[in-house]
Predict the structure.
Amino acid sequence: MREIDVTRTHDSASRAFPKEAAPMIEMRQVEKFYGPFHALKGIDFSVTKGEKIVLCGPSGSGKSTLIRCINHLEPIASGEIVVAGHRLSDSQDAVDAVRREVGMVFQQFNLFPHKTVLENCILAPMRVRKLSRAEAEETARKYLERVRIGDQAAKYPAQLSGGQQQRVAIARALCMEPKAMLFDEPTSALDPEMVKEVLDTMVSLARDGMTMICVTHEMGFARQVADRVIFMADGEIVEENAPDAFFSNPRHERSRAFLGEILAHH
Amino acid sequence: MGIQELTYLLQGLLWTLFLTVIGFVGGILFGIVVAVLRVSPSPWLRIPMICWIGVFQGTPLLMQLFVAYFGLPLLGFNFPAWAAVSVALTAHASAFLGEIWRGAIQAVPSGQSEAANALGLPGWSRMVDVVMPQAFKLSLPATVGFLVQLLKGTSLAAIVGFIELTRAGTIVSNQIYKPLLVFGVVGALYCAMCWPLSLWGRRLEQRMAAGAAK
């Protein structure tokens, strides 16, 4: 893994870590329903600055729902979420404040297909952070270089491979200079040969001290960068453990069954 | 059929074009409003638009022209015939285009809005920068199709005494007793307007498809 430029935001983040563990993201007694379906049941957890969390569990366990609640893509029924000191509520101001602090990467990339790679990256900085076009382009080029895709800036997303698109999506989120990044199964929609380039990008981001929550089944990635692995089932956090302990000696019966299934083919 | 009759037909054609342009420009402006309000989360904005669309899609254009021409004066608006017809056509087009664009807006994958929200884009930017350009592209075939329908629909304005192309054709035909010839020419003129429109729509579609090449 090659070393990359350390940006202002990440620099300060790595200086602050691991001295005093200030909570970057905190969830308290979060409940979420889809109609009668109880999707999240009393979720309690917190992420400190610079920490990397891998969230895993069987499908339907609520792991995607959980991270989508953090930036209010899903409203919660009750409980409390605090992100970088901003308490999330249904008010647009609170939602905007939280969204300025966290970036998100989706399974399906969700790049804007009618805009070039560069335009994808400068839209939010210009509209939200009110940067001039020149400033936004400068930032965008810096982050596109960082995910090693600077030479594709003029192309449209559909002209890129899946792995390249996902790296653009990461760069697009980074252009807002977020304090934390949420990854919702970022490699699940990729062909196998493209998984590595995206994971490498995420590893280098982790090395620079970014606070990250990743929903993923990439257990190699979890071992390599995670500070904690959180295992969910049926809308609850079942087990929270250091990655080595989680993989070698899972405490909970359901974690063992889950690991047995996903590791069977590795 | 002499030059005089042909000139008369061409005058009718100008009125047809005029009504079409008015209906379409008005329809686009109000149609955008209808579409945006129609997808609003607030029922106070959404439900009136559902009714608006229902009324204009559920009744014949002919009846709408009648109501505008005979009904508006009863309410104290004294419009000339062309203005009454324009109001009816604009309202009619706004409902149909609004519904076409509503469908297109909702056909844009929800991941696009989610990405815009996750980036913190304000609501207007999410619509203008992200959703509407994609919806416009999706709606293009139906929009051009409706434009062609509207152009032909202006022939109904004849019913309130308006001398547009079809009405001009009837008058000329009654004078020279050659209905086949006259309506053949009228048909050819309609075709000459609609055909390029369809071609233009197809071209636009292809160009936009090439722009975001797959």
